[in-house]
Amino acid sequence: MCGIVGCILKDNEKAAPVLLECISKLEYRGYDSVGIATISDELNIKKGKGAIKEVNNELDLSDMPGNYGIAHTRWATHGKPSKENAHPQIDCSGKIAVVHNGIIRNYVTIRNELEKEGHVFKSQTDTEVIPHLIEKFMDKGLDLEKALRETIAILDGTYAIAAISVDEPNKIIATRKDSPLIVGVGDEQYFIASDAPAILDYTRTIFRPDEGDIVVLEPSGVTVKNKDDEIIEKEIFTIDWTPDMAEKGGYEYFMLKEINEQAEYIQNTLTQKENIEKIIEELEDINRICFVACGTSYHASLTGKYLIESLVGIPVDVILASEFKYSLNALNDKTLCIYISQSGETADTLDALKMAKPKSKTLGIVNVVGSAIATEADYVIYTHAGPEIGVAATKTYLCQLTAIYLFAALLSLKLAENNDDIDLTKTTDLLRQLDRVPEFIEEVLGQSDSIMKMAEKYKDKSDFFFIGRGYAYPIALEGALKLKEITYIHGEGYAAGELKHGPLALMDEGVPVVVVMPPGEDYDHTMSNLEEVKARNAEVIAVTTDDAEIKEDKADDIIGINPDVSEIIAPLVYIVPLQMFAYYVAIDKGCDPDKPRNLAKSVTVN
Predict the structure, then answer these.
(1) Which residues are catalytic?
(2) Predicted TM-score (pTM) of this structure
(3) What does the pLDDT read at residue 605?
(4) Which of 232, 340, 470, 479 would staple 297 via disulfide (CB 3.0–4.6 Å)?
């Protein structure tokens, strides 16, 4: 989940300021430490523990000579955050520097062997074995490219690696396996990066190397060689993101900007109808669907289950990607597996996709064009949510949901051609309602002042519970996740009908319970659950229609939603005030909502 960048510029240009700017755009991937390495006549390295701004204030990371180099922002796995464990990591000679995103599983064995050969290690990281292996092979007469090729043949794990050496000036070597890496082609400027936001200010023309490719960046251009050491051409495409999309745009934090962008980007996802119709045309004889996802995407998948089973009647399972291997034997060629990931690089989800491909049809729902899941899956739906910098997913979640809603509705229309049991009235009404979702979200955003005051009231609570039934249940789960992600307050989401099966024992005097209760057939049942928790003197926050008749003795606070928001589309609207509530609680507690502790944006390691 670390972020890496590299650039090679014109001879009269300094790389360090560019590297600093680029790596700052990837801080959502990790913010334990940062480092930059450039080469002039010698290897120059500056690195330190802490956020990029802190380390830069201390070391002035942009003040380094050289027109090329590499940089890294770290999310610690092996070795605690420290200057010694920060990247770049170097070899014994001090001539080779490496940055790495991933995990080397066999690093202990490699390190022990290298230490027996006389290599001296200075960190606790798994990464440090890489420059020492490169050093070993270069000492045998190999050049940097071939030394890296020999090195990765020994490594067991995941990696995106960039390396430079004093002995081979004006050259950056990079490769990847199960970790994201893009190559950017500018005007006599060439880049590698973990993710596109890093380089948007310099180029939007990119390509993605395949696993095992070796990429060589030089002032004259970029060369790519495949696993067989053959020079190959890569498909180059232009990202439709603009540099402004990856900026705060006047907001204090990215998360608030991204919450406020949701209505706009849902409109982008709604333009995918034609693409989804084409995919559905090719899907024949599907009698089972499996959603596979992690975290927030898992909650989107639960909504998908309710939608598809309700509209179409096809059985749907929702499986955590990390647990998918235990369901592998139940797959067959009539199963459609749908993989949901914002980055398209989520390690567990990508692994699950690779497991399923030989047995089932596969569909990816992702935000990043050309990402690993998009490339690997049989079909892909892009959510077009733009870059999301805040670690806690907001707009990408709603765009995932929108894609799922479109898929479910259009699948219903297709299958109804040969199935009289499918009620198209419900489907056509759903499609009509989807067009109004941006309007409903804008109305919710207009309640920011009242939600801000509510956050101030509850900021010192230590526990929260979120409950809902049917379509409101995934909302409760996602609301709880948002709160604990960015405020560090314990939050749990439950199906409201499960209260008497254990959770009710925890709902005591003064404990806040968020009750999600959109209009519909579950409203009265949920109201009964609300009264149950209120009878235990819990503090109730009701998220319901703004014309709901809830007396003050039943709810301590009410967040009102337009009554035209029906139960079936509630997941697209009712989550927005819960995102806002979590954001304002985090601000009141002095937490950085963009950079929650111990978390990073893209989980690219298992």
Answers:
(1) 2, 601
(2) 0.85
(3) 58
(4) 340
